[in-house]
Amino acid sequence: MRLAGKIAIATTVLMFIAAIVTGPVCAKVYKTALSLAITGPTSDAGNPYSKGVEDFFRLVNEEKLLGDDTIECIIRDDKYETDITKRNFEEFMDMGIPIYLNYSTGSTLGLKRDFEEEKIPVIPASFHYGNLENSHYIFLPIASYSEQVIGLAEYVANHSEGGTPKVAVFIHPSAFGRGPVDDLKKAVAAGLKVEVVEVVEHGKDLDNTATLQRLQNKGVQFVICHTVQSPVATLLNDAQRLGLIAGTFGEKGKMTFLGAHYTGGNDLIALAGEAAENFYWTTSYTITSVPGPGADAQLALAKRYKRDEKTANSHNYANGVMVAQVAFEAMRRAKARGLEINRENLYNVLNDMNGINAFYPVTTVGPVTYSKTDRAGVDSLQLYVVKGGQFTAVGLPFRSVYMRKIH
Questions:
Q1: Which CATH number covers residue 370?
Q2: Is the full-model pTM beyond 0.85?
Q3: Rounded CA gap, 404 and 407, in Å?
Q4: Residues 175 and 278 reside in one and the same domain
């Protein structure tokens, strides 16, 4: 037998022996986990959010976006109760997850020290700026609630007439709701030309008549809301019944209502009906009522997994898709660099997601950028307003000027 033939046979034998010794190269399963309110308070946001996360990871696996490797995401309902979230997180850690998706402001703050001890990167559904203070491992998906509320106040200051506009803030009675209030007051102290007349923590009351009449008597023209859709819808319906909703921005003797991320979207229009007309809202997400690649991608994903129309058009479905996109992209980049997919490497990949390495998901109005000094993902915000029963874009994406000044 010729030498070449002997070498080929020997090589084949060695490869066969190596296969017996080492076994076949197996596809890997990377685990991640999500704890959130699928039921209970804020489930109107948590339910579509969970479906967005689930659907995007299903797409990753079915389309083999990580090759033969797959992502398993364990999703558990915590009913918006921090104690349940903590138990879920402890069990998730026993499963060896390298990145974690949390939900509420209260549980994110409550588990902040745990995240530091475990050195695990965390992407919450909460955009509370306080999540970032004395923390290294929490990565906000988009601009913080503080930036959203201050951005709305800046729009009021820049587009109102007749002196310093009087503003009331209508908030959720929780850490989630209270989060941006101090930052807004700091912005005012730094020169933002609005007067914060009153901060209203809403209760479970079904009638806001007394509150609205009090605000009107104080000369309030603008109400900035930071809560969830249901209480805002109640507020708008009461304001409409009292004839207080402004027909145009800043109409004298009336009130113009504005809101941050969790106050708006199609759910608000469904709940408030005609009373939602002229409601101004800001978020960093693209929405399906504004044509574009983001709307097309969201609707196609929802259709693929047979989601109902309400879910398909929810900005919180997009929210869930986006956090799953970021987690996947961190894994994809680590794998592309030949790195093990573990907590440390994903943390470093996320911190390197800036400049030429910025991540551009079609679900948002700007790129996702992180670094060790900037862990709020999408810095840009888009202002929307309800016209003719649907949200339309107002101007181009923007950033808050005063948020840069106070932080």
A1: 3.40.50.2300
A2: yes
A3: 5
A4: yes
